[in-house]
Amino acid sequence: MLFEIAQIITEQVNQYLEDSGLDRSVILENIAILDSQNENADELTDKVALTLISFHEETTLKNIPNNTFEPDRVLRKNPVIHLNLFMLFSANRNTYNKSLKDISKVIEFFQGKKVFTQTNTVYDRDSISMTDITNFKFTIELYTPTFEELNFIWGTLGGRQLPSALYKLSIVQIERKDIITGEKGLITEINGTLNKN
User: Fold this and answer.
1) pLDDT tens across 166-188, in order?
2) What is the chain's alpha carbon radius of gyration, rounded to the nearest angstrom?
3) Domain count, the chain
4) Cβ pair 136, 3 in contact under 8 A
5) Range(s) of the domain holding residue 175
6) Where are the alpha helices (DSSP H) in the chain?
7) Is there a domain that residue 190 lies in?
8) Phi-psi category of 53—alpha, beta or left, where left has phi over 0 and alpha has psi -120 to 50?
9) DSSP 3-state of 61
10) Are residues 51 and 10 in contact, defined by beta-carbon separation less than 8 angstroms?
11) Bridge-partner residues for 57, per DSSP?
């Protein structure tokens, strides 16, 4: 589900850039390879990279039971994992002006659209990688790190700082649907007597 969400965001932002008269410059790639000897580093030339830099589990939703009710039984599954994702848009365009324009348009796009669902989002539903996507909902908001956090992020990613915007996506659900941990019959009648004291 992580790839699928990142791909949906990439498609949506690229469409907005194109509608705004700019290049479809956003690609899903790890910005840390930019200054490495990695053969994929050339793909980042004159692009805006969308990189998943971290995620954490939403602990407040950790203990919600995951039961499916059928007409004659209840199926129990392990709890769904709810994640918050931290995704970084980094502009490595040929000129600083283009970088700033692209980051500005990214921020503008998410100011106008904060909630993503399968009904309000256009994405390539025929793609093989998207066939398992049937129902999703997540929100996205600008996350502003402190200068110390920003320094740590870019130090971890390779040192060279680029014009960028960091976003927090909440809540992405991950569940393996084929594993059932328990099964019980439904209570269909109650027997006994009620004592009034």
Assistant:
1) 999 998 776 555 556 556 665 56
2) 22
3) 1
4) no
5) 2-185
6) 2-19, 96-112, 147-157
7) no
8) alpha
9) helix
10) no
11) 83
- Assign 59 a pLDDT band (cuts: 50, 70, 90): confident
Rounded distance, CA 173 to CA 170, Å? 9
- How much of the chain exceeds pLDDT 70, in percent? 81
Give the tokens for residue 128. 């093989």
The pair of structure tokens assigned to 171 is: 């809540």
CA distances from 79 to 61, 92, 177 (A): 9, 40, 11
Greatest distance between any 2 Cα atoms in the chain: 84
pLDDT over 90 for what percent of the chain?
46
**197 three-class SS:** coil
Q: Are 188 and 96 in contact (CB under 8 A)?
A: no
Residue with tokens 């993503």, as numbered in its chain: 116
**Domain presence at residue 191:** no
Q: Are 49 and 27 spatial neighbours (Cβ–Cβ below 8 Å)?
A: yes
What 3-state DSSP class applies to 97? Answer: helix
How far apart, in whole angstroms, are the C-alpha atoms of residue 28 and residue 129?
A: 14
Structural contact between residues 48 and 93, judged by C-beta atoms closer than 8 angstroms: yes
| The pLDDT value given to residue 2 | 85
Nearest to 166 by CA among 144, 140, 138, 146: 144
Whole-structure pTM value: 0.80
